[in-house]
């Protein structure tokens, strides 16, 4: 990711080539490094470095368009501006608002030098230790360890981490992050663990490896149980899978168009009182970009409070149409996406997973879900399967591994049946607790 001064230089050099009344420049990119392993061997060790410069222009008649390049030289910047102007001339007039005025610069940095310096050999050495522990247990390991700097992500996806425009606005954000996922397999069982952080020191790889090994061993020779309504203890990764399906419902544009599960429920109960959801990019556990695609500062929002839908996210355009204030959750324009919350945090409680198990007469402990799909948008009915450690709980103890189950469940209804919550942790891109729920619907048993 370019530095503050390098980003300013790119933006200023780009702006000087534009004759449009309004011009906006986005800069993104950085470094993404990955070590992937399977069958107890490292099979992929890659690193990508890239830069994206994206230019939007608005002409006198409000025609607007965007063009993108990864060239930083003057010839490349001049060409991308010309492409944006040419595309705008053949576009329909837009309803976009004038670009934001300048004012005070907004700069945020959350870069860990050790994570930045954690290279291919460091990742390889860490993975070798993980594989050795799995081999010692007679098991097979597969997974990945990544480090990232800037806005570049998996498979080359790049977002915006610097914005400047012809009205003097400048925004900048930079961060490091790391991600680890491990699946441990035996003949008829598997175990899994995962962790994410802004620093490589956030990952306790030895403990995560031992956790996955223990789950794999404990779930050997799984037995089937009857589907139906069960008391479940969902570990954080499983909870996060369900919460993601709610996230799109908070966009103001979708709400007011009647296309969202949330439409008509602002100020009303949508889940049980034990469920709370925040959007907060300033929480140190969950640092995110503190401005939206137009450069507007992102607001901290209480989305669901004690089960009641309290807030929606608004882009500048939607807010102006609805006579309310923008929240800094708008997309990069032009866009067909309605926007939505970022940096999600689910409220937690004081119970541990072990305490939830002890208080359960008969239930199912779920490590995670996979292959999750939306079935019925209006009620947020989702289907998917358990994976990598599903266990029967009887009389306060985990007694055996069970075959994986397919679930078919309204997320809103599930969160009406919360019994207990743990302290939230970082999992699957958000801060989320484990949950004990009643009457969670499993529709069938799988063959493995």
Task: For this entry, give a set of tags.
8-stranded mixed beta sheet; 448 residues; 5-stranded mixed beta barrel; 10 helices; alpha+beta; PmbA/TldD fold
Would you kindly provide a written description of the structure presented here, covering whatever features stand out?
The protein is α+β, with helices and mostly antiparallel strands and 448 residues long. Helices cover 22% and strands 37% of the residues. Among the domains are: 182 residues, PmbA/TldD fold (2-Layer Sandwich), CATH 3.30.2290.10; 124 residues, no CATH class. It contains 10 helices and 21 strands. The strands form 4 sheets. Strands 1, 2, 3, 4, 5, 6, 7 and 8 form an 8-stranded mixed β-sheet that branches. It has a 5-stranded mixed barrel with strand order 9-14-15-17-21. The chain has a 4-stranded antiparallel β-sheet with strand order 12-11-10-13, with no helix packed on it. Helix 4 runs parallel beside helix 5. It is globular.
